[in-house]
Write a structure and sequence with these properties.
alpha/beta, 5-stranded parallel beta sheet, 5 strands
């Protein structure tokens, strides 16, 4: 009848309509790869679930900011670098040197008047013999022993590795380098005795530092007190496997005559195979 549609025709139309809607949905509905979330506060990158999931968008409570995975890696790397830089600077600042010694390096060693063999041995020891407990530089006054000793300290401090590779577990130590003149050390300790000040404030930092330059050994007045002080200092550093650089105007034979067997034994154990005789013109006389 006119105006009426058959059930078959209506069903066909509905079927066609359903197919058309399905086709449209299949063409337009997609699960988006990038979610709509706040952009990274550093680079404005949007959240990528394939890269940033489970670790990157750490929400700070009360702060509407997000960080992508790449920026988090950069921030963590920057923090590590800053901490390492601060550690090295703190270690460097612990070394207090007299004014004239502050810039002594291997590069500044006088190659015209200096002992190049002694320089090369000292530099090789500073760079490579990191498990050696010590080195001794002997020679006449003014030949550059202290220069080479300070250069060793600077060479080690420029290396980011710990100043001591191995040490006994539980041994008290500080990852720093120190300098002390033997004559000044004994004089300072004697003042402490006279004023009843605690000598530990002077001796303990020298006992615990990873690397010590004991300069001008033998210049101090020869007394039982000075010999005991040197012996105790060397014994403590030897027992804790801490590195000691020694300079002296006295030759090894003269040192044997000056100090008793306790000091000689410990110096020998520290500087075995690393006694360098420095021979050159007197720096100070030009």
């Amino acid at each position: 009848m006119p105006g009426k549609r058959s059930k078959r025709s209506s069903a066909a139309t509905n079927s066609n309509s359903a197919e058309s809607i399905g086709e449209v949905m299949s063409r337009t509905v997609r699960i988006p790869r990038t979610y709509v979330k706040p952009g990274c506060e550093r680079c404005s990158k949007l959240y990528d679930r394939d890269v940033d999931a489970d670790r990157s968008y750490n929400y700070s409570p009360g702060v509407d900011r997000w960080l992508c995975a790449g920026c988090i890696d950069e921030i963590e790397s920057e923090k590590r670098e800053a901490a390492e830089s601060e550690r090295l600077q703190t270690r460097r600042n612990a070394l207090v040197l007299p004014y004239r010694l502050g810039q002594m390096t291997f590069g500044g060693y006088d190659t015209g008047r200096g002992d190049l063999s002694a320089r090369d041995r000292s530099r090789a020891w500073a760079r490579d013999a990191r498990d050696s407990p010590g080195i001794m530089l002997c020679g006449s006054p003014g030949v550059g022993k202290t220069h080479l000793g300070v250069a060793i300290l600077n060479e080690r401090l420029d290396d980011p590795r710990p100043l001591v590779e191995t040490r006994p577990i539980g041994a008290p130590f500080e990852d720093c380098a120190r300098f002390v003149d033997c004559g000044d050390l004994i004089a300072s300790l004697q003042v402490c005795i006279q004023t009843k000040a605690p000598a530990s404030e002077i001796i303990d930092p020298l006992r615990r530092c990873s690397l010590l330059l004991l300069d001008d050994l033998g210049s101090e007045r020869s007394t039982e007190f000075s010999a005991n002080t040197i012996s105790l200092l060397l014994r403590g550093r030897w027992n804790d496997a801490l590195t000691t650089v020694i300079t002296s105007n006295l030759a090894p034979k003269a040192l044997n005559e000056r100090f008793d067997s306790r000091v000689i034994s410990r110096m020998g154990g520290m500087c075995k195979d690393n006694v360098v005789l420095v021979q050159s013109k007197d720096y100070r006389l030009g």
